[in-house]
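Why do we care about 3D structure at all? Because function follows from shape, and shape follows, mostly, from sequence. That is the central idea of this module. The next example makes it concrete: a single protein chain, its amino acid sequence, and then its structure expressed as tokens.
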Amino acid sequence: MSEAAQGGDTTRLRQSGETAKAEASATADQARQAAGQVAGTAVDQAKAVAGETRQQVGAVTHDLRSRAMNEVEEQTRRAAGSLHQWPMAARVPHSAHRPRRWLA
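And the structure:
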């Protein structure tokens, strides 16, 4: 092979290498941009999920609090009703019926 042919091959190889390098660099830049977009989307989705979770927890908390308060009110009404049905003697402690001798 002549020196001219080898020189041409070397030039073409160098140009091919530079082209490949430029394409690889462009591809890497595109991959970085895509990764940044994916990361941004993931962050946005995580924020949306966290916000929805907060809303659901708030709703459940409110519901449980309401149920607990309703149960307390119902139990209080039942206890009051039971107390009103007891005879007066049963409501007063036994010691209250005895005269206090130490006062005399």
